[in-house]
Amino acid sequence: MTKAIPLLLFCLLGAACLSALDKASPGGPGSPAAPAPLLPQGPPNGSVELDRNGDGLIDYRVYYDGRGKVAREELDSNFSGKMDTFYYYKDGILQRVELDTHSNGKIDLVVYILDGTYVQRYERRDENGKTILVRDFGGK
Length: 140
Ligand SMILES: [Ca+2]
What we know:
Bound molecules: calcium ion
Helix content: 10-25%
Low-confidence stretches: 1-12, 14-33
Strand content: 25-35%
């Protein structure tokens, strides 16, 4: 089970960010697949919403900080009508990803990102929000 989680994580992050990675390739060839904001710049202290599949429901929302850099993104990765993936940025650099992998409205996977690219640590949570697994890859 422990070995399956990184693959699951990779699939989730990868699926959620495929369109962003098509447009941007941070670090160039050979670098790990890094989530990138769909819309990295926007109105200072503003937000933008998208209906990516045209079903009339917002499935992507991005909030910007006072300098117009992305501060937070929300994504409905499976178009269920509920946001299930949340990206948190500082100075436009990805710091943390929170996922509701069971689509039940509860965060069950938290991933801490190093240098905007590498998975530094992740935590698995049960349905009560209790941390049941921690994997720390070190760094800084
Ligand atoms: Ca939609």
